[in-house]
Amino acid sequence: MVYHSGGMNQFSNGLVDILKDEKLLRSPLVVRGGLKARDESSVREWLSGWVLEAENEGEAEKRLIDLLHRTIASAPKYPDETAVHFANQIVADSYYGGERNNEVFIVYPSDVIASQYNYAFNGWEKDFTKPQSEQKWNDVFVWPRTVENPGVSIDAGIVFLPDETPVDPGTGSRYACDVKKGDGKEEKVMIEDKKLVEAFTEWFKQNQSRVREACKTYEKETNSYFSTYRDRTEVYKKYFSIFTEEFLGMGFKPDDTDRLTRKTVSSVFSHSQDFFNEEQISGMVRSIGVNWKRAEKTITAKEYWEKFFQNYPHLRPKHVEYYNGDPTSAVYLFQRKHNIGKADTSGIDGVLLGFDENHVSPDVIEKDPRSNPGYEELVSTARRIIKDHYGSK
Prior knowledge:
This protein is α+β, with helices and mostly antiparallel strands. It has 2 domains: 243 residues, no CATH class; 94 residues, no CATH class. A hairpin with a 2-residue loop joins strand 9 and strand 10. Helix 7 runs antiparallel to helix 8, helix 7 packs across helix 10 and helix 8 crosses helix 9.
């Protein structure tokens, strides 16, 4: 999970970085490992950070094997790290994502991926026509066609950008920032709204027993085999909507108040003791990120991006779609608007859309050449470099 949550509560220019990097989505081996080419100089640079720091050749060989194969993930490391990863039939913003309500995402037609690339499904279902039944495993491995400057062009898909989201005109973020200087560098950092955190902390101290009683009453009224989702939703509104209104009165933004209510209620349900200390209370606010100051003097996200593309026209993606609301719902709306899906041939061609020959099944993914592009050549080059490096000492 370290890479899934990496960069949380930090400013980044993810899309701009992609646009400047030849508009290519890269694999983890390129993004984290820096291995963009397989010539001897590039492989040597890839090895230099750890493998070539070993005391002897034997240890370096062991480190090479670890670098290629050691992983805590369920999938074999080399196929995992050389693939570009996609979610199927949903936008996985709740599991990965960027800024909430300011998501940038890229959608590709399934038949483009299935026909042009070797691919594998990490979940139970091997099916392009519907999402995986469990979101964590909704992970389609797609291997670029070459190991030299590998990637998947965003111009083969549609870049969805937020439309009416209010953002800072300088950063494109919903949040305010400050500039932190150190080691000769400047870094944008988020600013905590201490007044909001303090207001919630004081509110909860005064209302702990009230919240707990509301939770007990809710549990009593919904603790029935015959209780439906609709029943539970109505009872939830009955007892907890007042908290949402009170949070709004404190100064929390409308798109944060419901989340804060749910966090408050779930914290009480899961807390074994009757008392919350101050750190635990403020932690409710911080854990869901509603403690940060919002940007002031905002413009819309569309205005921000159109100004960016006006200044850098060569970086504009080939296909741009502005959207509002939930990302996955926005894609469905786009499909209906453009009558996409009426030519569905999966009933005839199957759930792999007729491109079964490009599908790598889980039982062969570790050894199949399609899911291990350039592996033998990389190992050969790396071992030659290791031998030369330690032979010259």
